[in-house]
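Chain A, query sequence.
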Amino acid sequence: MEVITLGNETLRIKAAPVPEVTDEIRSLIREMFIVMEKADGVGLAAPQIGLSIRLFVLKADDGIERAFINPQIIQTSPETCSYEEGCLSVPKVWEKVIRPEKITVQALNERGRPFTLEADGLLARIIQHEYDHLDGILFIDRIDPAKKAKAEEKFLKKASKKDA
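Chain A, predicted structure.
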């Protein structure tokens, strides 16, 4: 299992719901945590490993590993904040992104049980970032178009040097 990067079509597709939480899904979640940790990430969505399903994992600054299956952000605060984001699928590119400060999300956990979570700070930001992946949106899509073009160019330049 490896993280795919900008240019791979799977990153731009709206992911399909997970039909059922099975042992296979639980095993996938465990593997995703391992891949995320090895890559020094704080979150990882299934589309980032080439699977177009509505699932992501994260570990925020509270140190708790969380899995979100078929999540839905049901509420966002009107207050926003800016924070520098990066992404395992767009390596070595960092840009400030404005997002709601607080959110409420509903999802299934790895046991298939529904839960609702109110989040703020880094946890809210990671959830929104990973949730975007499920809709085919990358963090660079949320920045100024000129900065986005520059970020894509920077990434593609680094990628072509790596392949050379």
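Residues 76 and 90 are 26 Å apart (CA to CA). The beta strands are 43-45, 55-59, 65-76, 80-87, 90-100, 102-108, 114-120.
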